[in-house]
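Closing statement on the flavin-adenine dinucleotide sub-project.
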Amino acid sequence: MHATTLTTDVLIIGGGFAGLWAARQAATHVKDVLIVDKGPRDWGGLGGMSGGDMITLHEDQDINEWLDEVVFFNDGLCDQLMMLDTLRDSLPRFHDYEAMGHTFTRDGNGNYVRIPQRGLSHVSLTTSAPTGKGGINMRAALLRSMEGCSVRRMGNIMITAITKDGNRASGAVGFFNRSGEPVSIRAKAVLITAGTGGWKASYLQNSMASGCVELALKAGARLRNFEFIDNWNVPKLFAWEGQTVLLPLGGRFINSRNEEFMAERYSPVLGSKTDTQYNIRGMVLEVKAGRGPIVFDTSRIPEKYMEEVTPAAGWMKLNNEKLKNLGVDFFKDKIEWMPQPIASEGGIATDLDGATEVEGLFAAGTAQSLPTGVYFGGLSICHCATSGYKTGDAIGRYAANCDAPAFDQDQAEELLNRELSRLGRTGIAPKDIVRVTQELMAPVDVCILKTERGLERSLKRLEEVKNEFIPVMGAEDPHYLCKMVEARGMLMLTEAYLRSSLERTESRAGHFRADHPCRDDGTPLYWVEIRQHEGDMVIERKELPLNSYPLKPYRYYMDQFTFPLDEIQSFLR
Ligand SMILES: Cc1cc2nc3c(=O)[nH]c(=O)nc-3n(C[C@H](O)[C@H](O)[C@H](O)COP(=O)(O)OP(=O)(O)OC[C@H]3O[C@@H](n4cnc5c(N)ncnc54)[C@H](O)[C@@H]3O)c2cc1C
């Protein structure tokens, strides 16, 4: 089939908030920026579904106090220079949003509503107004602000590979996921803002599938932090987003004895006001001890906040209304919650400008490595804006000052044929791979209280799935071809997670190894990184450049918890 050929200065893969911020900025330097997204044009990625709550360091707050807390929260494993950039740039981007017409919530005195996070003293997010519509409004504001910019935006294009000219990115190939028509795109520089990838859990479903892993690894970039995942608490029977705001205001997880078990047993200082990873460890222990199910109790949220936390718009309002019609009152009924691994927190390793080790290839947003499995609400919206802006600026300047690389047509055709040859073929359906992948991740000794045995068991099965299923996958139509690429990406993501988790033989931040439950303070702090060599993932440790960081880690968030190791080890035996 004849491929559509597009040419641009800067190609942006992924039209989420990071991609949109980057496009605005890149367009100030070059004549043409092209955003492509596998979803509908301008849907805005996860950001459009989000609350729009944003970590923002306001004028009266001290960046050094915040950094100290963030390093503490991450148990020392923090890219301090990137975090400093993120915090420093948060306020200018916050004001940019306001200048675009976006509204953040203010109290009766006209002050911004700031909500502290995870029991920390300084770090807080600023909420968007109205509750439930923050992300929708942010997306509209971003799109409005791009009117008149030299940015083309195209939807329903699935990118399957980055093309190269030697060690330089030269564009990408993919296909229109409605028609199956192949497309090759020539670019002076390429930015990956395709998100990090997840396991099609809960309300994220297809919106977060695939992501950056396959694109980046095959292009020669390095990945980092893949042992860290977003384990999220969700109601068992329906979707509800918002615990990052509800917990600090008094929401609690309680067991069948009506005990706030986190406060009673595992962290008297923090109780439920902590990171989800820690709450989830507590939930597992309670259920294993016969004190389940776990419910979310909002009865202690003061009445004055109820209006603020009740969804007033968007999908959350619709959700709330539907629940009411079914006779369920989220704020009054005892609703069972459960944990699930929803997404990776790993990303592409870059410098502070978002540049990868591959010339002309950049990454931003959740596709760029930053958090380490512990997550304070609002960081993502903030990081998408700050890294999108900064990387957009850098890639725009890069593309404005270089000639176009050579575009190897044969290479592009080979990459396209490899993918499209599966079209029209029956075979293993993508949903079966998705199911198997979810089953590989789900066991408690794989995703929450990790052990070598659990991780190796899933890895062994994953190798079998790769060898047996991938060669016989088929796609009856372009939609299923898209799903097939996503399923393959999920397998790679899972492999990245399992191998990285095995490499980190200690517990720290969002990573808990039941067979290595302590921090390894005897080994210099390291990242676990992944590169590809002859088709295989190679796992490497990279020491943190503590000498170039302002802070030496000296206190650790994880020390505020006592989980009974004998109980954990006995039920994992
Ligand atoms: C319900 C909900 C509420 C949230 N609330 C908040 C909040 O209040 N505050 C906060 O900080 N965070 C929040 N988040 C998280 C935050 O919204 C996201 O982490 C953030 O928007 C991610 O932006 P991104 O641009 O990095 O990636 P994404 O939004 O994931 O965008 C990636 C884009 O790339 C596209 N793509 C992926 N692969 C390909 C491919 N191969 N080819 C072409 N296109 C591709 C996808 O379709 C997608 O549009 C929330 C998330 C959800 C789901």
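The longest helix spans residues 478-503. With this model delivered, the sub-project is considered complete and its resources will be redirected to Aim 3.
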